[in-house]
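Model it.
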Amino acid sequence: MAKIAYILLCHKDPDAIIKQAERLTAVGDYMSIHFDASANPDHYKQIRAALDKNRNVTFAHKRIKCGWGEWSLVEATLYAVQSAVDAFPRATHFYMLSGDCMAIKSAEYTHRFLDDNDADFIESFDYFESDWIKTGWKEERLIYRHWFNERTQKNRFYGMFNLQKKMGLTREIPADIQVQIGSQWWCLRRQTIEWVLDFCAQRRDVMRFFRTTWIPDETFFQTLVRHVVPAEQIRSRTLTFLMFTDYGMPVTFYNDHYDLLLSQDYLFARKISPEANDLKRRLGLLYAAQGVNFQISNEGRSLFKFLTGRGRIGRRFSTRFWETESTLGRERELLIVVCKKWHVAKRVLERIRQTTNVPAIEYLFNEEDTPLPALGGIQKTLGKRTRHRRALMRMLFDYFETDRLIVCMDPSNLDLLNDFASDRSVTRILEIECNFTDDYLIGHAMRVGLAGEHTTQETLQRLLPTIRNDMVFESDAIRDAQFENHGRMRELADPDENADVLSKFLSISTDKAQEIAKTDYLFSD
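Modeled.
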């Protein structure tokens, strides 16, 4: 009978990881866990304390920091796979999971399915001939070397790419390798896993090649499996049910999707909403159940396409991502830096980026040219961003794969502040209070169109008190709103006082907060 070693890559939510491991191993299956080395160390200790005595659970023999689109995701997978191979000699299959996956069939059904289908299940399509990549780079992922993270080191990532392109520094794909592409959610037989590990040990040239490709978790295993396994033994599909919106974001499943999920011709589903407690409870009980008869209709994708194509508005299968769930998510934390002097806020944000790993975005609701990832068009104009602000923020949380996000806003955005503060997520506001000289106010008047190059000095002098009072009014309005988590950092305050405010706002140590607060150029004009 099939015995599965689940390969779990994760970086958050230790309680869910522990439950998932206990649930999947209770029926005799196994699990190998790689917990991101950049994640909260206390979470890792919690997981180890809960699972160390479970003989059916092992941990990757080496933990590394992982980043989206990097080789690190493949490397972490290989570490977890090797540990599973060593720890579980009776495992017949190795199944790749994330913390957002849950079983939608019983263990009895899953084992029988794998016994009846002696094959490897992995999406594996020809990289150049297929249309798996819909938009964006194709050959550029492979023929140029990518050393930096596209999301956290954009300038370096694109700078090195443009330099290589300008100098014609392309490279050849290893001659005997036909690159394949597909989903990273696979289920492979033990013999295949052993062949892949042997190939990795023998072909250092191929390993060097993939190490500097972009998004290798979509190509590495897909290519190697097709290279070492006869084609007739490969089923080019995933056993994990997942769908995407027309903006390229994963569809999230909620409590009312239980029957739909069970009817799909898949063994697992991704992504399950963290707040879908009833769905998680029912699916958790399902895996250990006996004698369940599953009626497979497999209508999920066609139903999704039908409903989105006709503009159905509602919680399920909506036409647009922003019509699905009106909250950012109870487990998420939005940190908002509010400052009239945008250059000061941007300097503070830059120091925060250097001190923490929290993704930070500048004035996305005020500056149209704020760098943002491609999110299907919702990010293109200030009007769209403001109208669909919660959807935009949810998509940014998902894009950066984080539960904490920092953004900048102008004090005039009181409606946005009120809206986000009313959300079920945790919203923290850091107001930066600056002094405004007459020269600064005149420059501000010119930037916003209240004055021009030929405006007389007499007119400017009459205008300045009005502008100054307007800024005071905005600050007073923020204070009058009595936001629950509102701190003020002041230009005239002592750095230690500002460090205390920063420490509470960012949930970081006082020492780290002082590194930011004592930066000598923060408030200079």
